[in-house]
C-alpha cells in the first residue's frame, strides 16, 4: 500500500509528460500500480494544500513574469486540479533555456522543472496547483485578445526589480541587433553601425507594461508600426542602449 503523498507524487510526474517506465524507476512503484491510479474512475481523496504564498525569490519572479508575458502560458491538467506553466525557449538560445529552468526553481524551490523538445524550441514546463495564483494574467484565449494588467503585489515586485522584468520581456519577445547607415565624412561616404533593442508584442497592454517600466528607468524609446499598427518598441539612443547593455544584454 502506498500513502497519498506517494501516489500524488507519482501521478504528478506522469502529468509532467514522463513515461510510466521512467516514473517507475525513479519512485520504485510498479507501472501497473501507477496505471491503475491513472485509470481510477473516482479521484483520489485530496488533502488540503495551503496556498504557498508569495514567490520565494522576488527578483527571480520579476524575470519569470517577463518571460511568461512574452512566451508563456498556463494550462490545466486534464485529470487533476494542478496546472502546467510552460515557457517556450528557442533552440538558438541555450543560455536562456538554462536560465529559465533555474529561475522557475528559484521562484518555487523543490518543484519539478523539465524540458520538452519541440520543432525549433524547447518547452520548459513545471507542474503545480498554484501557478494561477502566481500568474493571475492567465485565462482562455490569446493574451492580446484580453486585458493584461498586473495585480498590486506584482507591480510592487516589478517596481523593486524593474531590470529583471525588462530582461525577461526582452529575452522572450525582444532582441538586440546592430543597425547600419552611411554618413558623409570629409566628403567620403562611410558605413556607420549602431546597436538597437527591439521589443515586439501584439498586446498593447504588455507593450505598455514594458514602456512604463522603461520610463521609470529613464530609458528613451519610441514605438514602431507594422502596416500602420503599433507593434515594436525601439530603444536606439546611445545612453539608453548603454544602460540596456549593462542590465540586459543580448540573448545567448
Keywords:
25% strand; 4-stranded antiparallel sheet; 252 residues; alpha+beta; single chain; Endonuclease I-creI; 10 helices; 3 domains; elongated; 42% helix
Can you tell me about this structure?
With 252 residues, this protein is an alpha+beta fold. It folds into three domains: 4-38; 58-147, Endonuclease I-creI (Roll), CATH 3.10.28.10; 171-247, Endonuclease I-creI (Roll), CATH 3.10.28.10. It has helices spanning 4-15, 20-27, 31-38, 58-71, 94-107, 131-134, 152-160, 162-173, 204-217, 238-247, and strands spanning 72-76, 83-90, 113-117, 121-128, 174-185, 188-200, 222-226, 229-235. The strands form two sheets. It has a four-stranded antiparallel β-sheet. A four-stranded antiparallel β-sheet has the order 5-6-8-7. α1 packs antiparallel against α2, α4 packs across α5 (94-107) and α4 (58-71) packs parallel to α8 (162-173). The relative contact order is 0.12. The model is unreliable at 41-49 (pLDDT under 50).
Amino acid at each position: 500500500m502506498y500513502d497519498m503523498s506517494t501516489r500524488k507524487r507519482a501521478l504528478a510526474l506522469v502529468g509532467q509528460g514522463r513515461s510510466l517506465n521512467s516514473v517507475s524507476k525513479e519512485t520504485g512503484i510498479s507501472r501497473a500500480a501507477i496505471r491503475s491510479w491513472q485509470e481510477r474512475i473516482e479521484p483520489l481523496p485530496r488533502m488540503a494544500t495551503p496556498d504557498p504564498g508569495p514567490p520565494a525569490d522576488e527578483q527571480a519572479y520579476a524575470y519569470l513574469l517577463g518571460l511568461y508575458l512574452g512566451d508563456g502560458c498556463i494550462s490545466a491538467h486534464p485529470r487533476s486540479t494542478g496546472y502546467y506553466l510552460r515557457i517556450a525557449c528557442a533552440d538558438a538560445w541555450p543560455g536562456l533555456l538554462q536560465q529559465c529552468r533555474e529561475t522557475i526553481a528559484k521562484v518555487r524551490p523543490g518543484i519539478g522543472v523539465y524540458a520538452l523538445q519541440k520543432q525549433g524550441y524547447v518547452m520548459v514546463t513545471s507542474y503545480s496547483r498554484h501557478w494561477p495564483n502566481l500568474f493571475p494574467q492567465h485565462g482562455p484565449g490569446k493574451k492580446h485578445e484580453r486585458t493584461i494588467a498586473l495585480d498590486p503585489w506584482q507591480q510592487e515586485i516589478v517596481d523593486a526589480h524593474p531590470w529583471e522584468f525588462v530582461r525577461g520581456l526582452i529575452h522572450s519577445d525582444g532582441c538586440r541587433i546592430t543597425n547600419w547607415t552611411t554618413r558623409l565624412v570629409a566628403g567620403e561616404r562611410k558605413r556607420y553601425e549602431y546597436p538597437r533593442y527591439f521589443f515586439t508584442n501584439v498586446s498593447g497592454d504588455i507593450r505598455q507594461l514594458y514602456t512604463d517600466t522603461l520610463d521609470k528607468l529613464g530609458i528613451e524609446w519610441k514605438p514602431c508600426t507594422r502596416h500602420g499598427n503599433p507593434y515594436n518598441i525601439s530603444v536606439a539612443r546611445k545612453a539608453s542602449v548603454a544602460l540596456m547593455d549593462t542590465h540586459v544584454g543580448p540573448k545567448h
